């Protein structure tokens, strides 16, 4: 009888997981498929378009211009939507969302038929499940006119983007051309950079949660000047909920600015990282600087729709790039590239809890 692969994780001790590839995910490595990879890029780009459309709709407060769902005023082609900005923003958001859903269905079928890596096929199914959930949340937000559902809808969009970015990365030449060294020094460097990346991704996601609260609670201009407060200080003199959210957003941005710069510099300078990871680190740094500039422009333009929506889009792109760079360091852990064993020792030292030891 075959074993369910994810159950195997319970046989391994933490020491074994660090010492050898994670067996629950070890699969045959697939060949690079250009057409499938490009389809992944198209899906990723369409989600970024969807996030921008959603951000623009929220910024101009057009999320409830159609009180019904899934149709818009009872039609897939509502009257006046091409000439009215609010109608155009919301209906375009819905149309792009439907397109993303169709693309996710195609992705699942394509992965199932052509992709040999079981973990990647599983991510395809998860992508489809999340896009269905996300569409349902968006519809519920409209039908109930619920601000809470609107915020959950915005938060889940970031997680969905990261999931699709993971799939697109795994299909890309960056993944297929990455051949990590098996030396102990390279293995230790990869583990350190991977852990660092997980911390930064977690803080960045927390930053985006604060941003979602700011947008939906109209706290974006609670501190109307930048970089200092109206009193000329870095820290506000007076406080309320909106000022707290706004200041938390600025404080987290400072932490992320320093953390991402240091992390990217470590990746670029390391002799044990691939050319692809160095390139992605440079791109991530560029996105970071753009994000800081867009954030400042929101205050300086008194929250115009275009820079505000671009700030949301670029923030999502920064999250996707940071997570993708982090996930790239998981390749040895996922695809069975074990570190070289020290002389006189086996690379697969087993603990008494290992399945094969139990069967002996």
Protein traits:
single chain; 360 residues; mainly alpha; 2 domains; flat
Structural write-up:
The protein has 2 domains: 31-177; 180-340. Helices cover 66% and strands 0% of the residues. It has helices spanning 14-19, 34-59, 85-114, 118-144, 147-171, 173-176, 184-216, 241-269, 275-300, 305-328, 331-334, 355-359. Helix 2 (34-59) runs antiparallel to helix 3 (85-114), helix 5 packs antiparallel against helix 7 and helix 7 packs antiparallel against helix 8.
Structural class: mainly alpha
Order of helices and strands: HHHHHHHHHHHH
Indicate the overall shape: flat
Largest sheet: none
Q: What is the straight-line distance between the termini? A: 18 Å
Number of domains: 2
Query: Based on DSSP secondary structure assignment, what is the total number of beta strands?
Result: 0
Low-pLDDT ranges: 1-27, 338-360
Count of alpha and pi helical runs: 12
């Amino acid at each position: 009888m075959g074993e369910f692969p994810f159950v195997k994780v319970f046989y391994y001790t933490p020491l074994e997981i660090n010492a050898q590839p994670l067996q629950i995910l070890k699969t045959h490595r697939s060949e690079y498929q250009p057409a499938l990879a490009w389809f992944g890029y198209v899906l990723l780009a369409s989600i970024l378009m969807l996030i921008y459309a959603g951000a623009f709709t929220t910024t101009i407060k057009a999320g409830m211009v159609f009180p019904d769902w899934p149709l818009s005023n009872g039609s897939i082609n509502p009257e006046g939507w091409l000439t009215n900005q609010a109608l155009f923003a919301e209906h375009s958001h819905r149309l792009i969302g439907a397109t993303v859903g169709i693309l996710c269905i195609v992705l699942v079928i394509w992965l199932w038929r052509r992709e040999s890596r079981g973990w990647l096929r599983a991510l395809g199914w998860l992508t489809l499940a999340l896009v269905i959930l996300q569409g349902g949340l968006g519809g519920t937000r409209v039908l109930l006119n619920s601000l809470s559902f609107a915020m959950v809808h915005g938060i889940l969009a970031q997680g969905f983007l990261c999931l699709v970015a993971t799939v697109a990365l795994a299909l890309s030449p960056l993944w297929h051309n990455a051949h990590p060294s098996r030396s102990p020094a390279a293995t230790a460097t990869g583990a350190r950079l991977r852990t660092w990346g997980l911390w930064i991704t977690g803080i960045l996601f927390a930053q985006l949660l604060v941003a979602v609260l700011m947008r939906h609670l109209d706290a974006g201009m609670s501190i109307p000047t930048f970089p200092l407060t109206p009193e000329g200080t870095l820290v506000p003199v007076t406080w309320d909920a909106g000022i707290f959210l706004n200041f938390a957003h600025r404080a987290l941005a400072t932490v992320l600015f320093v953390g991402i710069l240091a992390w990217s510099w470590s990746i670029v300078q390391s002799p044990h990282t691939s050319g692809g990871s160095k390139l992605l680190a440079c791109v991530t740094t560029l996105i970071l600087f753009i994000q800081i500039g867009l954030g400042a422009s929101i205050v300086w333009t008194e929250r115009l729709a275009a820079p505000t929506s671009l700030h949301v889009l670029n923030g999502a792109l920064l999250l996707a790039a940071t997570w993708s760079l982090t996930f790239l360091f998981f390749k040895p852990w996922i695809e069975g590239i074990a570190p070289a064993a020290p002389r006189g020792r086996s690379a697969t030292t087993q603990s008494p809890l290992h399945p094969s030891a139990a069967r002996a």
